[in-house]
């Protein structure tokens, strides 16, 4: 009945190949007089989603997560992952070859210091590491008497005989009616932010896309054009991308403001800037070590800091906010249709995780405005729901039986990017499930209702989402919320709600509100809506205050709510939220769905 256009469920990588590929890599390293090599899950821009040609970590190890690092030494290898992947990594790699290491427990630098010997040379690809990463690695290896060595040609590329070619996705314009600000005005703001600096290298393609009002098709799930750009104090900006990527309209419009250069011209232009002693600003989070070294070695001054464009992009303007509201209405209707369909079909016990993922994608595609999924749908039944970033495949596909089913999904529309998680009960949930779900819900509501002074960071409110779990001796190992772009990345910085969220929350920023709880081997819970930071008027307030507007509109499963655990204000919030969902979504869905929605959003 349903099919997927934007997500594959095939097992494309076999973990068993890891052994032979590590042997081949060690042989290549020996020829280079290297004793080890670093293989990050990264491309030249530190993107979350990378082109197939950049999946070196997956090719070597089998690991398909969006973040990770393998270190291969002559006698051992380790794979480093964060809390999202501590369970998944053990199923995706050969643990006899790759020792899984959780980043929260041991850093790559510490592991290297403990496992290398004096005099050893550890190689790295300078295009795939930032200067900050390189500095930490150099310090660690130096302390152990070893050396970090930049390798001009990544040895994996020579071993990967069937490596896909680099992408040639088309670059098109993102209209002002969607962006809310023209390119000329944006360039003026960026130039002003440069101050006395001579140039800004834009290494984050999200920032390139935002600045020049373009979108691309080079990677899955995010409409990115993979390219660099250079903003110059005394010359036209330049975009470095394969000219074949630009459609005629994009080329004609951009030519008013920018020169389009082939990718190879970037190194030349940076060397020329360095030779005249220019001061160049680089983004600390995404710039390749290679490009900083070119400027530094040719005599320039490198200012490595936060790209000023990132914060401009994070503060959505009124046009972008209206667009995302439209997208969330459209998406909410699609999700509500799915939830109705699930309520009818899941009790029979014949649905699988893939069935559910395909159905939800189909309901989104039926809007006729879906451009892509914003990430691969997490459709997880029973114990799979306890894996926060579980990825369903033909091999892991599980039948949805009685208990808990978690679905985390999102859509890319030209007017907005969505991300929603709902946890659903199939059959009668246990008292423990209802207790844990309600504690997660209380944390979700605490963030949604939060009021805080201007200048507060995400780290300062993260505990609001965890407090009710903490009281029961529980917690979750991911952030409470991430930033979200405007028809860009579903995971956008610098804003986030987490223990590491140091960026201040500002009006117009979009974030997720997604606390969770995971009982390993059994089930998992997560409730996620997107929210907008907005000014909050308070009578008699002595400071400028902020709060959140909830964007996401879809029912929360009331069968999992333990009403006695909610206080009066929490119950009032849930009732008001469901009344809004009912009011705004009902006109957009068919009568049978409308009737189901009426019951699904009843007062508690």
TrEMBL record:
Signal peptide: none
InterPro entries named in the record: Creatin/AminoP/Spt16_N, Creatinase/aminopeptidase-like, Creatinase_N, Pept_M24, Pept_M24B, Peptidase_M24_C, X-Pro_aminopeptidase_P
CDD domains: APP
UniProt keyword terms in alphabetical order: Aminopeptidase, Hydrolase, Metal-binding, Protease
GO cellular component, one term: cytoplasm
Peptidase M24 domain mapped to chain residues: 323-534
Protein name (database record): Xaa-Pro aminopeptidase
Species name: Methylocapsa palsarum
Lineage summary: Bacteria, Pseudomonadati, Pseudomonadota, Alphaproteobacteria, Hyphomicrobiales
